[in-house]
TrEMBL record:
It is found in: Cell membrane. GO terms for cellular component: plasma membrane. InterPro entries: Na/K-Atpase_Interacting. The keyword Phosphoprotein does not apply. The lineage of its organism: Eukaryota, Metazoa, Chordata, Craniata, Vertebrata. The chain crosses the membrane at residues 34-55, 62-86, 147-168. It comes from Octodon degus (Degu). Residues 1-21 form the signal peptide. GO terms for biological process: regulation of sodium ion transport. Belongs to the NKAIN family. This is Sodium/potassium-transporting ATPase subunit beta-1-interacting protein.
Length: 218
């Protein structure tokens, strides 16, 4: 009963993680954040693997999901430190884009209440095709929105880690109990030690032949 409850809870939690990861992946694609895009892609694959392992009762897949969950928590803690500029990190660097482009978070210009204006450069010596983007009126700054997204991922991952460990422990206990009471080992042992006795052919008596001869003589 406990294993069924834990499995159902883990299935629901994996579904929530998939929805949240897909939502985050969409906005990271819009902002060309290549490092989070790669992390989200791996996270989606492992969550699907964990969901399959939970449904099909494959503890090894759940173990992979458990290990990845710990790594995913670490990655999201790093993202929080990055946007809050903890430990010398700066949110204005191109770390999240692998230094390929100068794009920033999509929420920087499209957050709730943000008014985006494209202004031509006023400084001398700048190329004519360069423009400035002015963003004003944001209800919540983009870095806090990114922090909220990472915090949600951490919360879901922590709960998923606990449930995954619980399901693994319950499944291992059930396997040990099944082996103790006999299970498949006893059945295979019985099959291996069954002695197959050859079937002896039935000897047909010669009385029938003698009777037939008597009838012919008469």
């Amino acid at each position: 009963m406990g294993c069924c409850t834990g499995r159902c809870s883990l299935i629901c939690l994996c579904a929530l993680q998939l929805i949240s990861a897909l939502e985050r992946q969409i906005f990271d694609f819009l902002g060309f954040q290549w490092a989070p895009i790669l992390g989200n892609f791996l996270h989606i694959i492992v969550v699907i693997l964990g969901l399959f392992g939970t449904i099909q009762y494959r503890p090894r897949y759940i173990m992979v999901y458990t290990v990845w969950t710990a790594l995913w928590i670490t990655w999201n803690v790093f993202i929080i430190c990055f946007y809050l500029e903890v430990g010398g990190l700066s949110k204005d660097t191109d770390l999240m884009t692998f230094n390929i482009s100068v794009h920033r978070s999509w929420w920087r210009e499209h957050g709730p209440g943000c008014i985006r204006r494209v202004l031509p450069p006023s400084a001398h010596g700048m190329m004519d095709d360069y423009t400035y983007v002015s963003v004003t009126g944001c209800v919540v700054d983009f870095q806090y929105l990114e922090v909220i997204h990472s915090a949600v991922q951490i919360l879901l991952s922590l709960v998923g880690f606990v449930y995954a460990c619980y399901v693994i422990s319950i499944s291992m206990e059930e396997e040990d109990t099944f082996d103790f009471i006999g299970g498949l080992d006893t059945h295979s042992y019985y099959q291996d030690h069954v002695e197959l006795k050859p079937v002896k052919p039935v000897e047909i008596s010669n009385d029938i032949d003698s009777e037939m001869r008597l009838l012919n003589l008469t």
